[in-house]
Amino acid sequence: MGKGGRRAYAALSLLAAGALVLTGCSEGGSKGNDNDGKDKENAERQQSGITFGDAKASTGPAAEVPGAKAGGTITVLQRDSFAHLDPGQIYVSDEMALSQLIHRGLTSYKATSDDGQKHEVVGDLATDSGTTTDGGKTWKFTLKDGVKWADGSAITAKDVRQTFERLFAPFVSNGPTFIQQWMADTPGAEYRKLLPDGPYKGKHLPDSVLETPDDKTIVFKFAKAKPDLPYALAMAGYSIVSEAKDTKEKYDKAPMTSGPYKISEFKSGKSMTLVKNTNWDAKTDAVRHQYADQFSFEFNKQFEDSTKAILDDSGTNATAISFSNQVDAGNLTKVLNDAALKSRTVSGYQPYVGQMNINLSQPEMQSKEVREAIAYALPITPFVRAFGGTDAMEVAGGLISPTVTGYDAKFDPFGKKAKPAGDPAKAKQLLEKAGKVGLKLTFGYINTPEGQQYSTAMAAGLEKAGFDVQRQEIPAETYYDQVSKVKNNYDIYHTAWGADWPSASTVIPPLYDGRQIQDGASNYSHIDDPKVNADIDAAAALTDPVKAAAAWNKINEYIVKDVVSNIPTAYYKQTQIAGSKIGGLVYDDVIGGVDPRRLYVK
Questions:
Q1: pTM of this prediction?
Q2: Which of 124, 202, 372, 521 maximizes the CB count within 10 A of its CB?
Q3: Helix, strand, coil percentages for the chain (3-state, nearest 5)
Q4: Which of 419, 597, 571 minimizes the C-alpha distance to 496?
């Protein structure tokens, strides 16, 4: 799904998912199928606990992949080029997959099974996953010996300080904001006041917030306990940046790397080549491998293009894969039912929830009756069908994924599970009541075959209700950059979001906190509701995970049913395919797709 959503994933949960209800979109109603049990197990597994590893678990090298060997080139067919390579700007799935090969953080997720289903958080550049003696207010990390940048220079605590201080600078606007907010002890965008210019004008965070007493030691200090810090630090957006090579905005296209591979060449929109980083030491890395000599990326490969090429399986196609492209809708059933392809395919449930954002910055969208009319009229069937039907999607009722604690399968206020084709008659009644029949709606859509397909059909469904829909294409590579602008010119646009770890605390605040509204932020609908903001603060203060999950779900229900700013569309699944000469193929629950760290050429 490429730019399908911003996400990472971890897990700490005491609740299990509710039963999944698969909707037969071609029949217009809810219908279970043979995948019900498998999908439920998949979702529940992704809520299972991931523990914090000690120094032994954090010591490299990573366990060898069965049958792996060194050498060869892996071709990676991607729909979208990479808009961001600066860790601080990375918060979308395809860039996060790439980061597994080129960037490293203080912590990371270590697969503890060869099937991608079991994990623990371990020290990556750090010797362990962190130590705290006061319940999570203070966290200490020590850098491993021998960790280096691709140029051979040592990675030190100065680099770590630079990494976190630069996140406060205005030009860093696309990555996660959890740790910055925790440091500033404030929600929303107010965290920037703690260090408005980052470290670039000589000012630094005080030792009472971030202390680096020597080259190996880093101490985070928070006003409130943050027991999830090791999970947050494992996000790609918190990978370490080189102080000496920090070129501010320019770093986004040519970063210094620390992973097993470095960027040899990057032609934006065309290609990228990764080669081995000779200064990466496997002994310092418990999670990554360096089997292939090279990764050769080719961009502008639509889902159908990459699927057909890999199915061809001749020449370089035999050693081809995609990190983000899924099997296209036209080939999905064929691939899933071909026994000969079973060893070359992987599938899994993703934590994404798709949603149509109603832009509350637009004057005409201030009418709740107009928003409700959009919600009832919007057909979900075209969206599900565009990605391959119920093998790829499940119609959503709310904004919390089945893989996240607090999910309620019964919540469906606009009846999308029963009527995925929409209810234009009810919507037209609302428009007539509001006196808005014929209202112009500007629909910004992602310019991909799938985006063109579902947006055309969705627009037709909205027009049945009495809207005048004008579709405007947005390039895939910059789609999220465009729709995350506060002053964009679109009335509605689709996004998808996955939890950074399966707590709705990583879903509700970044997407719906009115204090988060700024260019590049993830409050795409620009919702700024006093009740939502207050309820977010109240839920964030709860330490009981069961009570917290219930509180987050109530906010979800209020946003969907009462504010009507975000219309849930679908819960995502994904099937990916690889050439016959690709080894180490696994669908990793944490990555939410193929694990690039273990791939090799047979």
A1: 0.79
A2: 124
A3: 35, 20, 45
A4: 571
